[in-house]
Amino acid sequence: QVQVVESGGGLVQAGGSLRLSCAASGSIFSRMGWHRQAPGKQRELVARFTSGGETYYADSVKGRFTISRDNAKNTAYLQMNSLKPEDTAVYYCAATVLGRDYWGQGTQVTVSS
After folding, report:
1. I need a labelling partner for 30 at 20 to 30 A (CA). Which of 17, 48, 51, 68 fits?
2. pLDDT of 51 strictly over 80
3. 88 to 22, 30, 39, 45: CA distances (angstroms)
4. What's the burial of 95, exposed, middle or buried (CB within 10 Å: 0-12/13-18/19+)?
5. Residue 16: its pLDDT value, please?
6. Whether 23 contacts 93, CB under 8 Å
7. Class of residue 58 by CB neighbours under 10 A (exposed 0-12, middle 13-18, buried 19+)
8. φ, ψ for residue 52, nearest 5 deg
């Protein structure tokens, strides 16, 4: 059974940092990535590894967020620096198996101004 669990969210002041973790289990995952959904907005892709191992970042987070992965642990991380109030959202991890995305329950990130 595939499970995806995020952790590491919280409340931080603007300019601060947080590190999110995503632990996936139950399969071998070809791709892992982070998405976010702010109140009243659609879910958007923030960062992910492509199936070729390259990284993708949304323009809004380039230079501030870094995605990394520990393949031995099937864990992905999202280091978020220089956080802004507009980064406030629920952050979700997606792990891909045979073209299907499995989602975690999300972790809340709130950035105060």
Report:
1. 17
2. no
3. 18, 28, 9, 14
4. buried
5. 98
6. no
7. middle
8. -85, 0
d(C-alpha 93, C-alpha 101), whole Å: 9
Which whole number is the average pLDDT over 35-42?
Answer: 96
Q: Are 70 and 19 in contact (CB under 8 A)?
A: no
Give, for 109, the enclosing helix (H) or strand (E). strand 107-112
Residue-by-residue DSSP string for 38-68:
-TTS--EEEEEE-TTS-EEE-TTTTTTEEEE
What would the two tokens of residue 6 be? 């995020």
Which element (helix H / strand E) includes 14?
A: none
Q: What's the token pair of residue 61?
A: 């987070």
